[in-house]
Fold this sequence. Notes:
The protein contains 3 helices and no strands. It is mainly alpha-helical and 90 residues long. Helix 1 (2-22) packs antiparallel against helix 2 and helix 2 packs antiparallel against helix 3. The model has no long low-confidence stretch (mean pLDDT 85).
Amino acid sequence: MYGIVILLSLIGNVAVLLVVARNKRMHTPTNYFIVNLAVSDIMVTSSCTWVDLVNSLTDGWVLGAFFCKLNSFAQGTCLSCTTRGDQELS
C-alpha cells in the first residue's frame, strides 16, 4: 500500500510541475501556489513517507541517530514550505 501511495504521489506531483512549466498560459499566481504545494508534497514523499514505512515494518528505530535528526529536519522543512505557501495566498 505504501509503495502505491509513494508512486502515485510522485507521478501526480511531477505531472503538475511539468504541466505548469511547459504551458506559459498556466503561469499564474494560483498555479504557482499549486506548484509550491506539489514541490512540498514531493519533498514529503521522498524524505518522510518511506521512513514511516521502514519504521512500521521494523521494531524500533533502525535508521540511526543521524537519520533521526535529518528526518525530523526534513519533516519540519516540508511543513514550513506548505504553511508558508498558505500564508502567501491569503
